[in-house]
């Protein structure tokens, strides 16, 4: 499989599944399906259902004493965040969540481990 943002996220989710016996909270991490190309009708329907552009890719709904939960925006290579993503990250951080950008599986894994340990 060619490395991409999607493949790095798949690796992270697979790692979380393998680690949830040691860290049960990792069984709660989930993907927010806001990205991807969609046909016009599907995009309109999803927007009516509450899909919002820029929401981070992953959410771990586990408070750690300092934050309400962890949001991760996955990136790979030279990809950067969009203006909408930057707004969401800023707003979520302002509401007591930890909202971060991770470039690839390894960085995301390390951030999750630090978050769980704190």
Automatic annotation (TrEMBL):
Gene3D superfamilies: 3.40.1350.10
Name the UniProt record assigns to this protein: VRR-NUC domain-containing protein
Top-level taxon in the UniProt lineage: Bacteria
Domain VRR-NUC: 6-106
Cofactor: Mg(2+)
One family name in Pfam for this protein: VRR_NUC
Keywords annotated in UniProt: Hydrolase, Nuclease
Gene Ontology molecular function: hydrolase activity, acting on ester bonds; nuclease activity; nucleic acid binding
InterPro entries (UniProt xref): tRNA_endonuc-like_dom_sf (IPR011856), VRR_NUC (IPR014883)
